[in-house]
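Proteins fold reproducibly. Take a tokenised chain:

. . .
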Amino acid sequence: MKKDDKRHLITSTNPKSPIAEAFRTLRTNIHFSALDRPFKTIMITSAGPGEGKSTTLANLAVAMAQAGAKVLVIDCDLRKPVQHRVFEVSGLKGITNILVEQADIDITIQSAAVERLSVLPCGPIPPNPSELLGSNRMQDLLEHLKNKFDIILIDSPPVVAVTDAAILSAQVDGVILVLRAGVARIDMVKQTKEQIEKANGKIIGTVLYGTKVSEEDYHYYYYYGEKKGKRKNA
């Protein structure tokens, strides 16, 4: 694995950290925003590259699995897939094999080290990602997988770079847009919103990634956690 390809699953390696708590808060917000009709398929994307969408998705997936949900991560970034490296599973076969070769779904999906979490990698990078993601086979696959998992989180390419994410946004219940502090440009964010809405996609929330937390905020978090722990034992 290249050093630049490493992603930190802080929800798994350091679950008591403030950052892990932020992902649990995101999980809770998603849950309460869809009480009447729970989201089954959520695409996580960004306006441009390097904004943290893949890391956000992976940590959110772990947080959801830790809460008892049966979670599937699908890597639909068919141009620069990373989820197989994040979860340390084989990337030799994946969703492209299912869509092109009709490979066995149950064999292609792999179990991650986190309990209740499964991964469907990209597989071989195809010459026609947009066509595959917009195909009837893709729609049928998602419908099939909805019956097997509580929640499906889908990684996609950045919206402005290629048409893949906009096409896929119309096939999912909701879209979460990840914006990296100091990187996301207002014009690109506006363009992203317009492209998703034009494709009949539904943005259900945004995540501001990479913000700096002050030392005072850390002190408050740990004080609150310690206080809460004492109350529990009282």
Summary: Residues 39-210 form a domain with the Rossmann fold fold (CATH 3.40.50.300).
